[in-house]
Structures are given as C-alpha cells and as structure tokens.
Model the fold of this input.
Amino acid sequence: MKTPYVNFDYEQLKAKYSEFRSLMPRVKIAYAVKANSHPDVIYTLAKAGCWFDVASLAEVTLTNYTGLERFYSNPIRNVDMLLEAYCAGVRYFVIDSFDGIQQLALLSDEVLSEIKVYLRLYIPNDSAVFALNRKFGMTPNHVGPIILACQQAGIRLVGVSFHVGSQCLNPEAFREPMRVALGVLKHIKDAYPGERMLLNLGGGFPATDELALSDFADVINEELMGVEDTDVVAEPGRGMVSACGTLFTRVLAVKKIGQAKPIAYLDAGAYHGLTEIKQGLAFEFTSTNPQSRPLEYCAWTVAGPTCDSYDMLGDFELPVDLKVGDLLTMRNAGAYVTECGTRFNGFPSPELTGCRAL
Ligand SMILES: Cc1ncc(COP(=O)(O)O)c(C=O)c1O
Done:
C-alpha cells in the first residue's frame, strides 16, 4: 500500500468509547471531532451513542446526520457561524468573554430562548504538552459580572467548561479545576434556578503507556461525588482516537557523511501529519523490516520529504542498516495526524485506512 497512511482500528475505537463510559458512568462523552474528523470515525462513535464537540461549521455539517447532542465548544466564531450551527440543530454554545455576550445579544429572543450557554474558565495547563489557556478561558473573578450581563441580555447561562490542556500527563490536574468549576456552577444555579446545569470537563486525556484512563477517572469520579442535578460531559479527542491509529511511512532517502549522524528522510514529516512532534509530543518510530542484526540501533536524525528545513523531526533510535524503501511505523497516530497534514510542496499527507465496524 502506498505510504504514508494511518491504519485505523475501529474495533479499538468502540472499545475506547465503552471504556470512557464504564470508567466514568456519570460522564457523558462528546468526542472532539477536530482530533480526527474522518466520516467513519464519526459514524462508529455516533452508532455507539457518543455525543460530539464541534468547533467549526464543517464539523457541524459532518455530524448533522447523527441527530445527537453537540457542544459548540469553540468561542471563536462570528454571528453567522453561530446562527448556521443553531439552524443545524446545535443548542449548546460556549463563551469566554463579554464579547461573546455581545454576539449572542444580536440574536432574536426566540433563538436566544433555545440556546444554552456555558462559560469556559481559564485554568492552569502546566501538566499538559499543549497548553490551551493562552488562547481560551476567562478567569473566575470575571464570572460575577458575566452572569449579570448574561441575565440582562436574556441569555440562558447553564454551565461551565474548562480544558486541562492537550496530552495532560497528570490526572490530578483535573481536581482543582473541577472544584473551581463546581463553585462557579453554584453561582450560576442561584442566578438561573430553573435551569439544569452543565459541567463540561473538556478533553486532555493523554495517549501514553505511562498513564491509564482509570487514573483520570478516579480523580474525576471522586470530585463528582455528591454532585447532583448536573449534566457532566467530557470532550476527549486525543484520548479517544490516538491509540487507534498507526502511521506507516517509508524511508525516501538517506544521507551518511563522515562522523555526523546519518539522516533518514521519510515520506511523512512536519507538514505531512507530524507537526505535533515539532511541538514536543513524544513519538517513536519502529522499523518493520526483518532485521538481520536486530540489536544494532543508532541515533538517526529524521526529517520529512520537503525541500524545506522546518520538517526536521529530531533524533530517533533506528536500525544502523536502515535503507531507502524501509517501512517504519509510529503508534498513537490516530489523533491530529491525518487532520493536520497539508499538501505542502506537492507531497501527500497520510490518509486514514482501515475497515469501519458495521
Ligand atoms: C474545547 C475543547 N474540547 C476538547 C478538545 C480536545 O482535546 P484533546 O484532544 O486534548 O482531548 C479541545 C482541543 O483543542 C478543545 O479545545
């Protein structure tokens, strides 16, 4: 098969969704479509009853047919996008600023009466490989004035959300934000006594061998003890799909000069699905070739295929006798790989392959 591609295991995806549900029975799951928006991924999860976190109109369109609950968790949108998502049936919308209120205030009373709004809180993202808090969230001390402003504008404020940062490597990172969020929820409940409240835990669940989902579930379940009359939702992206995908990429060229580290140029690189390696995510390549001398490994510099130097990926342990045409695999490639690939310099990005579960 022509490389690069990501082989995706849909049975594993079904099992992962069940694992989320069974480890956190109190938490409904809204898969973050941005992690992998392949129609077969959406279909498999929709069939299992999973809800969706949508963050653009394209993601709204992709999930329209499911008829399942959706959360528009991206506060960055204009009023046309908001209305189009509303017309497509989305009812939950996040805001994280007073500007978000001004946008909602442009809507008719009828539309406004159907829209349920939640606040995205700023929380520390120190335990995550990818911090999101420089871009999103409002500090809890703005919450009082924002509740008041929502009331004055006729906005139905029903909940709070936060995000611990993507690839969060410490389950405890959920504990304090949950306490803060539940405190804010009490204020909202007082201001909106008739409304059913929503606590949205966001994503952040990592793809790593060092931590299990149960480590995160333990903290979340503990903090949810005694929480009543509240819908609780999590929006895993990476944690849902990453481990289901394996990247297959080939060595396109090699260069060995003198004592310098040898360089392997792959047909996938930073522009072609592997941008997260550049941003600090730990990935490993494994050689699939039958090894004549399996124990002889050395450090190779690995780079992508383009005539550009941004796609230098770093140093990796690979077989000493690695050669042109060798096939390498990379685990945990089901999230943000096929999604983030470009066609820069005319090279194709990895496509998703694999047989969808019926
Ligand atoms: C609001 C929201 N929810 C969920 C996610 C998914 O995060 P992750 O892939 O870390 O689970 C993101 C990621 O950007 C997000 O912004």
User: Anything to note?
Assistant: The chain has a mean pLDDT of 95. The pocket of pyridoxal-5'-phosphate is lined by residues 32, 35, 53, 73, 132, 163, 166, 202-205, 235-239 (CB under 6 Å). The longest strand covers residues 245-255. The first helix runs from residue 10 to 23.
